[in-house]
Every structure is written in C-alpha cells, then in structure tokens.
Amino acid sequence: MPSLIVEKGIDKGLTAELKEGQTLIIGRDSASGLHLSDTLASRRHCRIEKRSGKFYVVDPGSRNGTFLNGRRVGEAQLAPGDRILVGETLIAFQAEPAAVEPLIGREIGGYRILQLLGKGGMGRVYKALQLSLDRIVAIKILSKQYADNALFIERFKHEAMALAQLSHPNIVAVYDVGDSQGFYYFSMEYMAGGTIAQRISRGRKLSPEKALKMMIDVARGLTYAEEKGIVHRDIKPENMMLDRHDNVKICDLGIAHSINEAQVPAEPQGVFGSPHYIAPEQAKGAAPDHRSDIYSLGAAFYRILTGRTMFRGASARDIILKHLREEPISPKELEPRLPVSLSRAIEKMTRKNPEERYQNAHLVVAALENIRQRMQGPVISKAGRSRLRADHSRSRRLVNLSVAAIITAVILLAAYLLYCIYAEQPMN
Q: Which residues of 245-269 are buried (b: 16+ CB within 10 A; e: fewer)?
C-alpha cells in the first residue's frame, strides 16, 4: 500500500498510509491524516488524492506553498520516490519498499545495507552491518544523480574528511570513506537513540536537568570542533543525536566549513542554516564563526526547554527577519520553573551582536556546568563529607546522652515521689 513518510523535519519518522478511496490531508490540523508540528505548515496545507489509479498532490492555497522535487506546485501527479516539501518538512511518497529502496540487502564496500534511516540533500543514510568487524554502523551514500558531478563528489568527500578529523565523545565518529560499485559512501557511528528533535516533537519539552546535561554535551563537542577550526553552521535539535544512554553527539557536518581551508570549493551564494536556529550574521550572508554556532545552540536550548521556538512567523523569511530585528520572550517568562541563571545564559548565547555572546564554546561549557552544580546543590569534598560524618556522630552521641540523662532524671523523680508518699503514711 502506498504511503508517506517524513524524512526530514521535527516529525521525522512519521508515516501515513494512503488508503483506497480516501483523501489524505497534510497539515497542522489535528484531524489531518498526516498531522505535522511544523509551524511553517498551514493547518490544512495540502492533500493527496487518488484518481483513476494515480496519486496527485493538491495545494488549495497554503501560505508557504507546496514543493514537489524542489518545484512549487498547485497540483501535480506523484511518482514513487517523489519528495514533497511542506514548510520545513520533507515527505517522501513511497510505493512498494523494495522499489523505493533497492539497496536494502545489498553489500557495498564491505557493508550489508539493512535499513533506511533518513535522507539529506546529497544522499541517504542507512543502518548497515560492517562485515569485517561484525558491527552495526550508519552509512551515508551519495545519491546516484550526483555521482557524475565532480563538484558534488568533492563536497561529499569534504564532508567525510571534516568528520574524520574529529575524534571526540560528543561528535559522531566517522569510520571509513570510499567508493564501490559506483557508489560513494562513508560509514559512521550508529546512534540508537535517534535525535533530540524526535524527543521534543509536537510541542514536547525536556526538564531543565535533562536538557542542561544534553546541551553541555553539545557544547563540549563544539569546543572540540572549534579547536579544529570547524564551524558547523547548522546546529539544531535534528543534528543532536543520542546513544542508548542519552549521551548527545553532534552529527551532519554536511555544510560545515573549515575556516583554515580556503582551497575548499565554496558553497553557492546564499543563506545556510535553519530559519528557527540561524544566527543573525549568518542570515545576513556574512561569514559565520564559532559564535554563530553558539547562537544556534542557544536557540535550540530555548526550544528544548520551553516547547516553542524563539520566533514564529508565516514564512521562513518572516522568522529570519525576527532573528535580525526582534528580541525573543525570555525563557523564564515561558517556563517559570527555570533558574534565573539558566534563562540568562540562554539570553547571552542568543545576543544579536556576536561580541555580546560567549566568545567560545569552552566558556559556554563552564557557565552551564556552574549552573548545573548550583541546581544539584553544593558539591562537598571527601574531607568535608568526613567532617559531616564526624559532626553527625557527635550530634548522635549528644542526643543519646541527653535522652539517657532525661530518663535517669525521670526515674529519680519517680523514686523521690514514691519515697515521699510512703514516708507520710502512719506506721502500724
């Protein structure tokens, strides 16, 4: 049975079957067949219809438009593998899984492809088994349509090389880069916990304690990337991945840029980054630096803690303009239980002027660690704990002595009263 699957966006992984004789609505309306959380989607953004055995996507006049394979449409016929863009949400139209994913079950470069995990601008990411080491990995394969394009291949290799430079507990590790059977690929660490974006979909948010721990992980990864001269340029919840123990690692450096490598082919002119998390200077088209990543981290932190993005608008352009011109509502105002110090840290991370932010990720780590320690209470040294135990023992002894003294006094008083009573009685 044909179906739709969300490949990219805050609702990534959401699916809907196209049932016989049923029109499927896509949008933010809770009654939609494919209900999206994307604020750039209209309530009833578009619909999928079946006519004479063929499927069509129909846009009744959404505010931001519906795009099919990159082209804005009012109505268009769908073919297996087509991709529909609604707001920031990328949706694939699938017929039979085997027809859409012919690589499942194949061996490429020593990897057996097991499952599709997601799609990006340049390729697809699969869960795979590395046969030589018998371990599960994620493998990114460059799309066939770009395989003969020298520029895209160079960008793909650059992405792999940028990742391969980085070895840190909070950055997804790259294992191997190569090409086989006409496929260009690189393999990397498999993250079983998914993304933070999946944890906060549909307006959900995380507790301050959990969010703080996760953002410290990301800031540590950015500190290391900064030391290596790498600017990520697209920090957002979708690029924060979790292992099975909820440790967070940064992924998708597909548009990362080494500030020390001028010879790397430049990106096409334009604005890069996600509208909800983009730094003002980046939105203006200026060269971003590490402080741009810090702004994006603060914007992501804001969303994770409050359940809403810093700015909302009818279009991506509206949101970007607000990043440039408006001040967001304080996180503390939206989430009163937040410590004042945490709210202020986020506000500092998201200052519009880069000079007013934390000047490097190391300072962000230090500030957040300090806040976490204060939230957990004072940290007591081993010597301090020994003194506390000794004081507790002395207090317990004093209490025991006091209780014993009181009991003794009561016994003596009782004895004295009995003596007085018997002493007053006449003797026979």
A: eeebbbbbbbbbbbeeeeeeeeeee
Handedness of CA 92, 125, 224, 208 (dihedral sign): positive
Closest CA to 91 of 16, 177, 4, 162: 4
Residue 193: count of CB within 10 angstroms of its CB: 16
DSSP secondary structure letter of residue 290:
H
Structure tokens at 369: 């660690």
Q: 255 φ, ψ to 5°?
A: -115, 15
Q: Do residues 292 and 235 touch, judged by C-beta distance below 8 A?
A: no
Q: Is 397 helix (H, G, I), strand (E, B) or coil?
A: helix
Q: Of these residues, 38, 234, 252, 289, which one is catalytic? A: 234
The helix (run of H) or strand (run of E) holding residue 119 is: strand 111-119
Answer yes or no: are the C-beta atoms of 193 and 243 closer than 8 Å.
yes
234 as an active site residue: the answer is yes
Rounded average pLDDT per 10-residue block, the chain, 428 residues: 85 83 91 91 94 92 92 93 90 67 87 84 85 92 78 77 83 89 90 90 89 96 92 91 93 60 39 83 91 97 95 88 94 94 97 97 97 78 65 73 77 70 58
